[in-house]
User: Which sequence fits this backbone?
């Protein structure tokens, strides 16, 4: 699955265009490597996403083309949430 689509379906980022923009700005890493919006993600990958002063690190648990809002949280496990000053 494409990175930008995963971020949208899992509701980590609400819109695919925003997910694409964040990835293009170099603010997303897959397993420690900078990722592009078209990068492929798979189960077990660790994503680090930088939102302003906050960095979220998650592990992908499930993939799916579409997911109900209640089930979206089960697509990943939050590993770490860091706030930078």
Assistant:
């Amino acid at each position: 699955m494409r990175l930008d689509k995963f971020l949208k379906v899992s509701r980590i980022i609400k819109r695919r265009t925003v997910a694409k923009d964040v990835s293009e700005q170099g603010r997303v890493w897959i397993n420690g490597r900078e990722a592009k919006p078209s990068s492929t993600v798979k189960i077990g990958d660790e994503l680090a996403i930088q939102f302003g002063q906050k960095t979220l690190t998650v592990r992908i648990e499930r993939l799916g083309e579409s997911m109900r809002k209640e089930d979206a949280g089960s697509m990943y496990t939050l590993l770490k949430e860091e706030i930078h000053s």
The first strand starts at residue 28 and ends at 30. Residues 16-24 form the longest helix (9 residues). Strands lie at 28-30, 33-34, 46-51, 54-60, 76-83.
